[in-house]
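Newbie here. three chains, one complex. Structure please?
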Amino acid sequence: MELIVNGQRRSLEADPQMPLLWALRDLLGLTGTKYGCGIAQCGACTVHVDGMAVRACQIRLADVTGEVTTIEGLGTPDAPHPVQTAWIGEQVAQCGYCQSGQIMQAAALLSLNGDPTDEDIDRAMSGNLCRCATYPRIRAAIRAAALRMGGV
Amino acid sequence: MIRVLALLLMAGPAGAEVMPSIVAPPEEGSVSPADGLAAWDRVHQVVSHPRCANCHVGSDHLPMWSGPEFPEPRPHGMAISGGDSRMGIETLPCATCHVTASTLDSDPRQAPNAMIPWQLPPVEMAWFGLDSAAICRQLRDPALNGGRDWVELAQHLQEDAGHGGFVAWGFAPGGGREAAPLGLQTHIDDVLKWGAAGQPCPE
Amino acid sequence: MSRAGRIARRGFLIGSVAVAGGVAFGAWRYTRPLPDPFAGTDAGALNPYVLIDADGVTLVAPRADKGQGARWLQAALIAEELDIDPATARIIPGPVSAAYYNRALIADFMPFAPTDTGWLAETARGAADIPARLLSWQMTGGSSSTADGFDKLREAGAVARETLKQAAATRHGLSRADLNTADGAVILPDGTRIPYADLAVEAARLEPVTDIVLRDRSQWRWLGQPMQRADVVAKSTGTQVYGIDLVLPEMLHATVRMAPWGGTVARLDPVAAEGMPGVLRVLPITGGVAVLARDTWSAMRAAAALDVAFTTPDTAGDQDAIWAALEATHDAGAIDTRRRDDGDVDAAIAPGDFAAEYRVPFLAHAPLEPMNATVLVTDDACTIWAGTQVPDFAVARAAALTGLPQTAIRLENQMIGGSFGRRLEIDFIAQAVEIAMAVPGRPVKLTWSREEDFAHDQPRPAQIARVRGRVTADGVQALDLTVASPSVIASWFGRVSSAPPGGDVSITTGAWDQPFAIPHFRVTGLRAPETVPVSSWRSVGASSNGFFFGTALDEMFATAGIDPMEGLLRLCDHAPSRAVLEAVRDLSGWTGRAGGQGRGRGVAFCLSFGVPCAQVVEVEDTPQGIRLTQAFAVADVGIVLDPVNAEAQLSGGMLFGLGHAMNCELTYRGHAPDQTNFHAYEGMRMHQTPAVQVRLLENGPLRGLGEPGVPPAAAALGNAIFAATGQRLRQMPFSRAVRFA
């Protein structure tokens, strides 16, 4: 079976029913995508498939038809995506476990809406659970990223 | 006569069927009003079941949840909205969680999936919370049922189920979820009986 | 391999150890030098907290980081005195060692209110050094890391700095007094810079220099300034490795399916599960079944499909019976603790005066990183990679399970994706050890499903409080608060160690110790039977007592027509607490309960873990339901060492308290909760989060802030809803009674 992940073609031997999440984590070693609930209630496993936010715990390998981008493919510590730069600047993370998913969801939001209102942010982000409740800083980081991306 | 021929041609399985069914309409008028009303009651059992009604929601676009933890349907968690598109808001489409899959099945409590893109039915087809008579009048009215006569309603069910859409999912939701009652073929047969009886509605 | 282990393997530095920050008391056995945590490793350890080798400086942060930023703050405390930029140091959790005992936490077990600065209380807190060291707890909890580390870690940095200076002085025939340090180097009088790494070998051979003077706050370069936590970049790029992300060569994956609390496996047929793809083995373990597989998903899929039946215990495991047991505990009235009994409440309260009953539900910790542990067992050693707040207990349990001596157990603490008290438990570590014992020589990573996490959380206990009181236009004259609860301390100690004798103060913490001058004031704890195991949940007893106490006061103020802010200020006789109340009044622009346009405001206060915290919540009654519009929090932590993180902790604590008060409960049936995942336990989400403003004051003693933001939140919200709607909420979650937008 072949997948395109972060621009690279990766081949793997896996049950086609395996959710993308576990293939990323256990078979491809991409552990930035997190398991939190397994039922699309927390958003910690959010990745992009052809640019759209998808919960990787819900999509089986057999049903992945597009290119997958994970948090590792969005940006790196040396070359962060503008959303990641904003996350670092606002020091959003506490335990940090949900933040890969939050960032992937926020990046998808900003790719479709470059100037979201607070209500736009709430509506797009309400499926991403943060048990530490870093939400005020997530809002601030999304606003900061929107400015940064608009300014480019 | 042309119409009868067309109906006969339609009888029988069509395409690559995920959930095959037969649409065999009785002659129009061949079913008594009483039998038609009885058929409607069974149709109502299906369409008012939470598995179906929870998505046939109104212009607030808020789908409902049912399940062991929610004996009474409650609004979908996470403040999810189907949006004007009924496919979710642009920045959080239904398909972010309800992925389009090669199977109807999913694990318990997962975001259920169908084999077509997840979405709410058109807003004019909302009947969540309505009583039997109101839903009946609505399904009878082409302006409120997607422009369909009674045969086309049955065909719609057949076609959707054949493609692994929401009708199929409602009868086979997987993951230990309670299915809509009676089964697809009975439901189609009941819609046709109700139609052949002149689509009678309870008062 | 850990930093310490890697240094040991290279073996080019010779270690010597000084203990910094230890305070010697009394008899010789307490003052014995503490063991060297790096003994036998040849680590270049200048003391238990500072290691220097050719690659640079490594700082040891022994308190676990669950997201509260402890690892970074511990490093910053050392680095400030060591004169290095903490961002340039490696930070490791260090080994398990008695050298890292936690004095501040034990002090909080003492029966003196945090505001009691009397001679007896101070002496007892100081003497807490003794039992803590004997117990050797390297524990993280009770918002104690900052208070415990503040002097100790700075002293460790200063000792290391002065010893490095001495090494340079000896090498160059100079006096230590003439040398300076800056940015990781000793500076000679002629301006020559000698990097610490060049001096480490010589420094490690010296007797540590201990005549040190800690720097005044005015000289701090990092502490007290906005800093960037070292983990923020990793946590924003998916590169932070948590315990659940660990990958080891030849590693197998496992998950468990455990019997309901108190039950056992009655019947198990492993054949079908063992035949599933990817599954290697189905393994009975204590209290349940483990599945070993090639990947996590295969293990979880097989565990869910497992053909297994469990016995259930015959103690009351249904929610109705649990409430009935709490009511019966009230009716029986057997006192567990009564730490406050001022005046004469029985004489002061008349029939017809205020009386109310309040209820709080079981609450799950449900940190977002599911429980996990990776273990490798060989013939003569056991290595554990797990995030834990109680490494000592984990090591002791692993030794008992494997039959190995404790010295053969190595635990590498991992970055933790949230805890809220859950990682004070060692059940998941013990399970991983048992599983790994079945496949010696192969590391096994145990990962719980979220369903397992909900089913086998040891929750915050459900409790019932009964309150009586007398209020006049002059204020609250009498308050008699009685709380019935199972004991989290007895329950937890019984699991991880052995149960201590005596009453459980935590049942009334956050009530008996409040700084309010109520003439007739009594607080009584009653111990209810333990129906399911219960545990410490972020802010422990104060999480519920803040609600009981803060709501009851608000009810009495309302009865007497007293503005609640004014009423609290009138009662409060503790200066830092008064300052906190005044600050939240000003920050929120408090003008009373009524907000106008369907809005209402509530205020609540709780002193917990030595931190006074006051909060104001504003709600609006909308057609879609109650909407939280604004929330304000003020707390006094003595010294704000890391302002960016302190603000996050206070804001996060308040929102954590609000989210659970609104939306969360566990209800039990047959010793298992009805709530199996986050769909039925939503907590706080973005769309319900109000705008938040926080302010930190510095009038009281230095304290930590991981927990004190939680206790006032529920009462402040309930009081606000009363102000907006007239509806009084006496039971959490509030979503039982009102709809939230």
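Moderator note: Helices of chain A lie at 20-27, 71-74, 82-90, 99-112, 118-125, 135-151. The first strand of chain A starts at residue 2 and ends at 5. Thread marked as resolved.
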